[in-house]
Amino acid sequence: MASFNNIRAFIIDMDGVLWHGEQPQPGLQGFFQALHDHQIRFILATNNASLTPEQYVAKLTRMGVTTVTRDNILTSATATALYLAKHNRPEATRVFIVGEEGLRRPLLDQGFTLTGLYEVNDSSKETSNLGAHIVVCGKDHTLTWDKLATATLNIRAGATFIGTNADTTLPTEHGTILGNGAILAALQVATGVTPTIIGKPEPIMYQQALSLLGTDPSQTVAIGDRLETDILGAVRAGIRSLMVLSGISTEKDLQKSDYQPTWVMPDIRTITQALQGQPEYFL
Predict the structure, then answer these.
(1) Among residues 49, 172, 230, 273, which one has the fewest Cβ atoms lying within 10 Å of its Cβ?
(2) Catalytic residue status for 230
(3) 76-87 and 204-213 helices, crossing angle to 10°
(4) Global confidence as pTM
(5) What Cα–Cα distance (Å) separates residue 258 from each residue in 46, 115, 199, 254?
């Protein structure tokens, strides 16, 4: 087991690490107290694009954690908005979203125009100016047939296809349910177009988080529960990683993987204990 030291910052996943749905993980308040006590900076970086940073702050407050601000939170939706703003002129770009307020708000904040249901370019009309230049798909509790149909029509008409993340499942207090990757799969089958993914395991989110933290990659650790997103993303970003077993991936998954986290621990309580100098709690 690698020595648990030289850590100035954490990039922390949320679903499966800090909570399952509305159920906080045991030791949640103590974990954030330990970060404060050891002066460890952190970004909460989630592939879940359904909530805004402000909504995540409110969720943590309900769980008894009051030290987190919106500046500590990076969602795949905000990462997507930042990425698209860097590569497009927002004031001249129309976007159709499959998603909720967590995706809608960052795109509007960057200056993009959002299109509505069945606003699609008509190739038979030279002046058609209704459709989207980009379709962005994030996790959406309000998903409808009309949203999927509009996204399909725009992509088939030539819109760029972007996925905030490709997680096929999501851990909740009810059990493991479908994630955004399942929605992307439906659209990919309907259009024949493969989406560009912004969230983990692509390194974009980790690179943005490092910029926000202002820390060196060698002093930063990613914490997550999924091998194929959190841990692989850390590998691609060139930073150390810690996998907890409180979410999706298991010890059996580790045995079959050709890449590995730097550390494996049962949950955030053991991370707190490790920070307090009790390495016997490592797996």
Answers:
(1) 172
(2) no
(3) 90
(4) 0.86
(5) 24, 42, 21, 8
pLDDT by residue (tens digit) across 120-179? Answer: 987 655 545 689 999 999 999 999 999 999 999 999 999 999 999 988 888 788 888 888
Active site residue 13: yes
* Residue of 15, 140, 225, 267 marked active site: 15
Residue appearing with tokens 């810690």: 242
At position 250, the amino acid (one-letter code) is: T
**Helix pair 145-156, 180-191: axis angle to 10 deg:** 50
Question: How does DSSP assign the chain, residue by residue?
Answer: -----S--EEEE--BTTTEETTEEPTTHHHHHHHHHHTT-EEEEEES--SS-HHHHHHHHHHTT--S--GGGEEEHHHHHHHHHHHHS-GGG-EEEEES-HHHHHHHHHTTPEEP-TT----TT-TT---S-SEEEE---TT--HHHHHHHHHHHHTT-EEEES---SEEEETTEEEE-HHHHHHHHHHHH--PPEE-STTSTHHHHHHHHHHT--GGGEEEEES-IIIIIHHHHHHT-EEEEESSSS--HHHHHH-SS--SEEESSHHHHHHHHTT-GGG--
| Residue recorded with tokens 């002046």 | 127
- Which bin fits 21, alpha (ψ -120 to 50), beta or left (φ > 0)? left
